[in-house]
User: Fold these one by one.
Assistant:
Number 1:
Amino acid sequence: MTADIAEAARVLSDATDVTLLAHVNPDADALGSALALGLVLHRRGVAVRVSFGAPDEVPETLRDLDVAGLLVPAAEVPAAPPVLVALDTGSVGRLGPLADRVSTAGVVVVLDHHVSNPRFGHVNVVDDEAEATAVVVLRLLDELGVELDEPVARCIYAGLVTDTRSFRHASSSTHEVAARLLAAGVDAEAVSRPLMDSHPFGYLGMLAKVLGRACLERDAAGGLGLVHAVVTLEDAAGLRPEEVESVVDLVRTASEAEVAAVLKELRPSHWSVSLRAVSRVDVREVAQLLGGGGHRLAAGFTATGPADRVLADLRTALTRTTTP
Ligand code: AMP
Ligand code: MN
Ligand code: MN
């Protein structure tokens, strides 16, 4: 790991043109990590662009992190970037329409924290014990001898506070990292509130409909219980992806269920499914059986077809994972 970080630092110190990519439907860890590293390289005179394969729009809550205007549409990512950095991207496929750049790039650096990462780069800094890719990026910035300032620290904090669910899943050393970020000037409430606690009023009506249809299946997941909800395109009309993504955080509060699932309709009958577990079920294993991935307690997969069939496949995968 130490050797990998040193190698990544060497590649980036020598680079004059760097493309940083987050996974599709980027979250604060993916985009915050990319923008933190991108900002540091940009200030060193490197030509930097930050992008992601889909969707076309940058999530509204993440736009303010881009203080130097580094974000470019996927169409502007060079066909063969000299140096490509993939962040928070557990597999090549998670780059979506930009996945081909992994084979055309001169050098590929992977910075990630997914246990299943196949280490698809030439240089791989993958720490599955890191709570967020942002932690891995901060280690790299330390290796590069960067002095933290507020805009960089804010990007790192955004990734850390979201992936740790407000530091619930953070080691003591990661709390020390948070202290460093605050000392660099981060305003924790100002960063966290738009990311986790603020939605347009229409969100409440959407929740009323979606949560009103939620189902509890006590016998599912080997008797540990499954709670699920479905967000159709109609439910989500006029709302941002941020509103849809946060539904699982409410569904998961049903105390009778170990596992929570939310089916989010991307296009008619195309679903992105969020899985969460309390502690006992490894939802990454479940997601992997269904072609997805993630972490032990937070994972996801995509599926097509009627919602009922996606749920039936999910029940089967849960049974396989929870039956000895
Ligand atoms: P989400 O429920 O979308 O917040 O995703 C939770 C975690 O699951 C993410 O951090 C990813 O690691 C992983 N994940 C979500 N969707 C997929 C997918 N389609 N393929 C692989 N991993 C995924
Ligand atoms: Mn992510
Ligand atoms: Mn992450």
Number 2:
Amino acid sequence: MTLTVLFAAPELWPQYETHLPKALAEAGVTANVVVAAAPEMVDFIVYAPSAPLQDFTPYRNCRAVLSLWAGVERIVGNETLTQPLCRMVDPGLTEGMVEWVVGHTLRHHLGMDRHIINPGHVWDPICPPLARERRVTVLGLGALGTACAQALAALNFRVTGWSRTEKSVPGLHCLWGEAGLTTALEGAEIVVTLLPKTPATENILNAESLTLPARGAVILNPGRGALIDDDALLAALDTGQIGHATLDVFRTEPLPKDHPFWTDPRVTVTPHIAADTRAVSAARVIAENIRRNVAGEELLHLVNRRLGY
Ligand code: NDP
Ligand code: OXD
């Protein structure tokens, strides 16, 4: 049987039009990948938040919706979507996130700015501590948080990871649940937020929790803008409780031109580029999931609609 896979993210089509059919063929799946089809003919939908397709009601024969994004907060509450929803766990995306997190951690750990931005040519021979003396906390121990935490631990950082459910990851001090959050944040010098945006994680870094890290701590947020209360962060920067924030994601994107983050020297803005889904590897993930579903196997990376991630 030839399946119909609707690729519903038109602006991404040029990246996938070769790789997705190739990956499906390699997975042994016979499918036509199309950008438009009669809804009742569609077996699988490949989705991105920018997709014009938001009403899934007519796709009554669709077996699963496969997101090209890891974060699914823009689709998870869509009531017209009754089919299983899978998020993206892409080795290429993970690799990119590890590079972004390690790069920005090292910037702050080594105090690189002191030497890169040194208009007065000050000879400032302060040697940074070793990574083994630096406490880093990663909020979120999923596909991305775990990979980043392990990469930092491999560089000898003292890494604590925090998740919703109990975990044990070699090399990491693992904490979980509400009770674990305070301990995870207390005394942290660098805090990385790699949580999904859900009702339970919104504003997790707020006026109260921002008092917990070590004075002058650095926040790295490649997760979602809503994880941080912006005003509380600006206030914590003003008091020096937080020394710097490197932010990749924002409540409104693009970040509005008049947002104070743009001009604050204690904030580094990167434009949601921490990690991109990579077409070559992501196409294989999509193809494997379609193969599994057709073979009667369980889908990978299924979203729990109740939890929102
Ligand atoms: P996962 O779903 O694999 O992991 C999410 C982690 O967050 C899990 O460890 C989960 O705990 C934890 N978590 C969720 N809710 C809570 C809670 N209430 N309390 C404590 N921990 C919680 O997601 P990924 O690692 O793949 O991605 C994380 C996020 O990164 C995405 O949702 C997206 O928002 C963002 N992202 C950003 C990108 C960028 O370019 N800036 C690119 C890709 C993703 P548990 O393990 O117990 O379930
Ligand atoms: C994602 C993202 O969720 O790019 O994949 O933010």
